[in-house]
Every structure is written in C-alpha cells, then in structure tokens.
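Hey, I'm writing a tutorial for new members on how sequence and structure tokens pair up, and I'd like a real worked example in the thread rather than a made-up one. If someone can provide the structure for the chain below, I'll link this post from the tutorial.
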Amino acid sequence: MATLIGFAFVDLGTADQVASVGGGAVGLVGFALAVIAQFGGASAAPSAPSASARDVHASGERAIAAGGSIGVASTGGAASPGSPLPPRAPGSGAPGIGGVTASGTGSIAAGGDIGSASTGN
C-alpha cells in the first residue's frame, strides 16, 4: 500500500500499472481458492447406512419385516388393517441403525414407522 502511495506522488502512470498487476494477482489467487473450495479438498463424511444396508429378517408363517417404514401391513386372518396414519414430517421416521427381525407367526417389524398393522388374530 505504501508503495502505491509513493508511486502516486511520483508517477501516476507507474502507479496505475502496479495497481493493475496487483489487482490481477489478487483476483487469480481468489479464483484459485474458489476452485479448490468447490472441487478439491477432503471428501464428504460417510453417510449413515441406508435401510437397504441393514440386516432385515422375517421368519415364521406370515411374518413381515421392513428396513424402513411400513404404511399398511397385514399378515392375514380375519382382521384387516385400518387406515394408515397420516405421514409424519420428513426425517421423523428415519430408519435407525441396526437389524430388523420379525420372528414368529404373524409378526411384523419395521426399522421406521408403522402406519397401520394387523396380525389377523
């Protein structure tokens, strides 16, 4: 900065050229940093396992297991499931981490929300 002030009192033409070169250099450095921030650097953090990445097991007659949410589930029999609950806000029924197991006759298990379920008993 002091150099530019000095040139301003001595020679305005030289001061203009020095300021232009300095401004161009600062602009190139800013552009390079923007490119590095956009495309370079560390990779994104690994995301949580999805519903398809979990262990889901259903064993037993008419058993139902789902890694995510279930809207309406019925394992048969005389009873029928009622109407499902209205959908919740996004993210409220996000599947947790771990396995989902439904074992036994007519069992129902979900890694997320269950809107309406009937085992038919």
